Amino acid sequence: MTNNELVVRSGAVERRYGFDGVFGEETSQKEVYNSVVSPLIDCIIAGYNCTVFAYGQTGTGKTYTMIGDRIETLEDVSVGMIPRSASHLFDELERIDSKIEHTVRVSFIEIYNEEVRDLLTGGGTTVKIYDDPENRGSVCVKGVKEATVFTVQEVNELLQVGLAERQTTSTNVNRQSSRSHSIFTLSVVTRELTVEGDELIKVGKLYLVDLAGSENIGRSGSTEMRAREAGNINKSLLTLGKVIKALAQKAQHVPPA
């Protein structure tokens, strides 16, 4: 391993994997948040879209990292990235110029067995993904519920509603294995008047993605429906990896997800 690069050699084949940093097992949730997610809050208020992925094998702590064990108070060391993001966002919005209006909305969806389900509607309503006609090259989720929120407590309550609807099960390697990819979105809209008297509107979104874990079906003991779930999870993670690699390398062709 060299500086920020892991080199894997197998015979005459050499592969290099770059990384930005490594957290030790004693690293707190607060330290991870401050390093990875905190810098993005100012970006979304400024009108940018940002994404954070939790990616890894099943049972490695992705959902714990994104959500934590408890979300009632940030004083609990286990609180994850999503509750911390919401609290940080409202703190920053309180500090901005009082002449700037702002609106915060949240949505919570999951991708389960190749279907997109809205976790905030009760019963997990299936929704559809379309090419966005107003923004070429982008997609939109039609019919997804976007709830307007005014406090961190309201965000946490909606997070709990969605978690109750999310697909999970017990396997040989994870007592509560996520069987879907979930996307919790914090959206902020700000409105202000420029010195010329024009209205300036900025829209920024933070996508907090808790991916289902890659799974060895033999080790996890998944059979029948659970084995099908695992197959879809592994297939989608492989496709996502190809897309990210193509984007990172600025390839002319990005494989369809």
UniProtKB/TrEMBL annotation:
Kinesin motor domain sequence ranges: 1-257
InterPro entries: KIF11-like (IPR047149), Kinesin_motor_CS (IPR019821), Kinesin_motor_dom (IPR001752), Kinesin_motor_dom_sf (IPR036961), P-loop_NTPase (IPR027417)
PROSITE patterns referenced in this protein's UniProt entry, alphabetically: KINESIN_MOTOR_1, KINESIN_MOTOR_2
SUPFAM superfamilies xref list: P-loop containing nucleoside triphosphate hydrolases (SSF52540)
Amino acids binding ATP: G56, Q57, T58, G59, T60, G61, K62, T63
Alphabetical GO biological process terms: microtubule-based movement; mitotic spindle assembly; spindle elongation
GO MF term list: ATP binding; microtubule binding; plus-end-directed microtubule motor activity
Keywords: ATP-binding, Cytoplasm, Cytoskeleton, Microtubule, Motor protein, Nucleotide-binding
Tagged with keyword Nucleotide-binding: yes
GO cellular component: a single term: mitotic spindle
Family: Belongs to the TRAFAC class myosin-kinesin ATPase superfamily. Kinesin family.
Name of the protein in its database record: Kinesin-like protein
Organism (species): Tenebrio molitor
